[in-house]
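Problem 3 from the worked examples.
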Amino acid sequence: MPSRLTVPVLENAVARLEPLSPRHLEGLRRAADAPRDSFALTTVPTPATAEEYLRASLARTDAGECWSLAQLDAATGEVVGHTSYLSPRWFPDGRLLAVEIGHTWLTPSVQGTAFNTAAKLLLAAHAFETWGVARLDLKTDARNARSRAAIQAIGARFEGVLRNWQPSAAEGEEGLPRDTAMHAITAADWPEVKRMLEQRLAAKLAAAQSAPHPRT
């Protein structure tokens, strides 16, 4: 039988990823209190639905289907979004074959900064170097050009569009299927992707420090 996955706090100089808990509720509300167009086709709670969102995320984690994480600014401790590992696939002997990074969103103030690169570096390193996965999946609504560009910018390869792959999360499309753009990083890709992410993070941090109003 597959062993139950556990996720510790993951942290570097920019991002801190903590296993989601009720103490993150107010932070999630603040992070989600933003213009909805900044979230594109991503599923993001509103301040009013944040508690329901948190309960559902914790229930999936308790069921062993998902491992939800609050995304925090490492410098301030402020909650800036959510992410998770999900959809684990196992070898017959119980070893973890692959896992997905998903359910990811960030408040607008950190979109386009070094934060996403820093967080993805933490998540991918844990998956490949601690769990020993052979593959890391990242997917999004095929229409979400912003998300697809962000996924490919962190080194994941586009593998194709899976038609009618899953239920749409877009507003007004309840009960309808969506086409999903599939991307992945494999264990063979990881050393080069890791170097690229480290270089990208360093460049973003340097650019932020030289800006008139530095932010990371």
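Problem 4, a separate protein:
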Amino acid sequence: MPRRRLRAVDEDAAAALRHRRAAISDLGEALRQLIGYASTTEAPTVELLAAAERVRRVAAPLGERVRERGVLPAADDLLGGIRMYNPVTGTGSALAPPMRIAEEDGVAVGRCTLGMAYEGPPTYAHGGVSAMLLDQMLGYAVSASGNPGMTVQLDTAYRKPVPLLTELRLTAEVTAVEGRRVTATGWITTVAEPDEVLAEAVGTFVALRADQARRLFGSVL
């Protein structure tokens, strides 16, 4: 196939992938809105039953073509760090806030707002959700440092309740690298009060050996 033709095919494929990712994100946003309303609605019981039936009808076509556990989503790029359905950062995930993460002066900084669906104690986030956010932040910092690994230990301390419907600021940084073992520390604060720590965590990550990576992820690598 001529080089010009190959370039056109590649451009078409890239455009189709961008369009699919945008569609996944759009559906994810709609699902997050649905979950938000479902978590806060005080609609009459009859309306809840009717809504449940409508949701089932809408969901049915999506279930006609689903991937198996050992198959990556077509829109993902594992090596490129694009995970559309990550439960913390994935824009296609109905579970994700989603959190946005970037590097600022060598420190990983994330921002998100937790809706009512994440409620544990009334008006505050469930502690397990805080731990999940911190684990994601620490993992990002570890990978960004050039020492990617898997979490083997996560020690979380809860200083104050994490409020819902409040913009949060999360930070994480690597504090030690010892061979394949990496230690990182992270914090949750609010954007309004960045010096008041609500929760913090210290995580230990270990880089996988080639044989371990093949055993765990051979079907998707």
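Solution to problem 4. The mean pLDDT is 94. Residues 3-40 form the longest helix (38 residues).
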